[in-house]
Design brief:
Length: 443
């Protein structure tokens, strides 16, 4: 038999001296079918703790979810610590882990990923910030941290990109709008650093502080100076912008200041397709998740009416996922609304939205040749109103999985399943193995 290179599984011809195949392009043909496509459906924050309003059940236990239950019956279930037991995951670190990029190695802060998600092509070494528009009064004090929940801030961002000049700092920048009052700032230049403070006072009635260097390193001071210059120039442009004049005339708070936070240095991400042989797409209303997807080379797919809330276009997202799976090997579909209900502490709303999600998932059940994995990125218990470290339920359904006895998709039922308790970083290797795309470790 021909020698096998690392990462290369010989094709059928190799035993007879024929060409070897790269496993990435074509998995080893087998006598049984392996799914060729993978759908990773992340239901953001769906898992929970017992809720008094639901008679001590979790929203997943209380909701009628026949489609998720069918997946549980036909698949293998388990529970998962998306980072590690006792670690409260952020959505960003959890999604990195679930995609197979351990956050302890790849996570460099939220800013650069948020900037990616706002459509800025972040190169390794660029500094990214989360930003939002806010309102300050004549004395410079913040009166509204969301500028009256302004949206459609594209013209303001365009004016800032055109008008602000940071060349004296030898820095170039991008400033793009995000959802609602949000935006993202990215800086590019030699020797910049992400060790700088924020100018977001996090409350109203105070003047936003200057950006400060966090250490005595020269790069910190240079970055802080460029940021302060950016913020000063942006403020001048916003003050006189016609859109803000119209807002003042209409009695609305003007978006006359930019607040930035979450500085991070963009890292280097090996493309998902190089690692797995699967090119793919990301469908998410949350720019942070879209940014994680594009950072690893997934194509962002926009869906009309997707909001990241419980009023999102669920059917549209499911249709888009199915259309993508027709032409690509992998889709990451994130549905956010249940997380929001958890942050608001609304257990009944959360359960009701889970039922809506479940109904929308029906068309996915009959997808041929597809491995489907459904999980949460973390728990968002209504009692905590934030993420918790409680493990999340996970189900994998498709050709070749060892079907266990679990009949319901919820936190407790899945704990009795055949996957037992895994970590987020285990999920992608398990899925790739089921698709016959895993490397053999050893001989
Ligand atoms: Zn999340
Ligand atoms: Zn959350």
């Amino acid at each position: 038999m021909a020698a096998t290179l690392p990462g290369v599984i010989p094709g059928p011809g190799s035993q007879w001296g024929g060409p070897e195949r790269d496993y990435k392009e074509d998995p080893l043909p087998l006598l049984f079918m392996v799914p060729r496509r993978l759908l990773l459906l992340i239901l953001d924050g769906i898992s929970d703790r017992p809720c008094p309003e639901l008679s001590g059940r979790t929203p997943l236990q209380a909701a009628a979810t026949p489609n998720l239950d069918l997946l549980a019956r036909e698949g293998i279930c388990g529970i998962m610590d998306t980072i590690a037991p006792g670690i409260r995951p952020g959505s960003d670190t959890a999604h990195l882990a679930l995609l197979g990029y351990p956050p302890e190695r790849y996570y460099t802060g939220r800013g650069p990923l948020e900037a990616e998600g706002c459509g800025i092509r972040m190169e390794p070494g660029m500094i990214g910030f989360r930003a939002n528009f806010a309102t300050v009064d004549a004395g410079g004090r913040v009166t509204d941290r969301r500028a009256g929940r302004i949206h459609d801030t594209g013209p303001l961002c365009d004016a800032i990109e055109r008008g602000v000049d940071l060349s004296r700092h030898r820095v170039t920048f991008r400033f793009r709008p995000g959802a609602g009052h949000r935006a993202a700032l990215a800086l590019k230049g030699e020797g910049l650093s992400a060790s700088v403070s924020s100018n977001d006072p996090k409350r109203e009635g105070v003047v936003p502080p200057d950006i400060r260097a966090c250490t005595a390193e020269a790069g910190d001071a240079r970055t802080a100076a460029a940021c302060n210059d950016f913020l000063r120039q942006a403020r001048g442009i916003l003050d006189t912008h016609p859109l803000n004049r119209a807002r003042r005339d209409g009695g609305l708070p003007p978006a006359n200041v930019v607040l930035i936070r979450g500085a991070g240095t963009m890292g280097r991400f090996e493309p998902f397709s190089d690692r797995t042989g699967l090119s793919g797409a990301v469908i998410s209303a949350a720019s942070l998740i879209t940014g994680i997807g594009t950072a690893v080379g997934l194509r962002p797919v926009a869906v009309e009416g997707m909001t990241g809330s419980t009023d999102t276009n669920l059917d549209g997202k499911v249709r888009a996922a199915m259309a993508e799976l027709d032409r690509t090997g992998f889709v990451l579909l994130n549905i956010k609304g249940a997380d929001e209900a958890g942050h608001d502490g609304k257990a009944r709303e959360k359960a009701a939205f889970l039922e809506q999600i479940d109904r929308a998932l029906a068309p996915l059940l009959s997808l041929p040749d597809t491995l489907i994995a459904v999980c949460a990125d973390h728990s968002t218990p209504c009692a905590v109103k934030d993420h918790s470290a409680d493990p999340v339920p996970v189900v994998i359904r498709g050709e070749g999985v060892r079907v266990d006895a679990v009949e319901r998709f919820d936190e407790l039922s899945c704990a009795a399943g055949g996957l037992h308790r895994i970590r987020g970083a285990d999920l992608m290797p398990i899925l790739l193995d089921l698709m016959n795309r895993a490397h053999k470790y050893g001989a």
